[in-house]
Amino acid sequence: MDWQVYIILCTDDSLYTGITNDLRRRLGQHGRTRCGAKYFRARRPLRVVYLEPGHTRSSASRREAAIKKLTRDEKLRLIDAGR
Question: How many domains is the chain partitioned into structurally?
Answer without folding.
Answer: 1
